[in-house]
Write a structure and sequence with these properties.
Number of domains: 1
Order of helices and strands: HEEEEHEH
Largest sheet: 5 strands, mixed
Shape: globular
Number of strands: 5
Structural class: alpha+beta
Radius of gyration: 14 Å
Helix content: 10-25%
Distance between the termini: 13 Å
Length: 111
């Protein structure tokens, strides 16, 4: 981990900024969950869209072994973009939602 960067602080800012600019659908709302003790950070999409109930983890990020693991990302641009723009190197980001055999072919860390 790059000791000059505060990963939890960067993640919290990126998720908060995302939630503030997200266009909501009908009765749905976003919930931002920060768990610094477990090193887990989420944005949940919750509510009703017409007759359909929505409860979806739009974004789920964890800090595991000094790396940022993106476990789920349902954003248009990709949450990794915000992490990179914040100065986090690609080698510190793992696309956990990609199969382990495929990760080696991405530009990010394999594990």
């Amino acid at each position: 981990m790059d000791t000059r960067l505060n990963y939890p602080e960067i993640i919290r800012k990126i998720l908060t900024d995302f939630a503030e600019t997200y266009t909501r659908n009908g009765g749905c709302r976003l919930r931002i969950l920060f768990d610094d003790k477990q090193k887990s950070y989420m944005v949940l999409h919750i509510g009703w869209h017409g007759n359909r109930y929505i409860h979806n983890a739009m974004i789920h990020i964890e800090l595991i072994d000094d790396r940022i693991w993106i476990q789920n990302d349902h954003t248009e641009e990709g949450i990794a973009t915000g992490l990179l723009e914040s100065g986090i190197p690609k080698e510190q980001i793992v696309l956990g939602f990609r199969h382990p055999k495929v990760r080696q072919y991405t530009e990010f860390a394999a594990a």
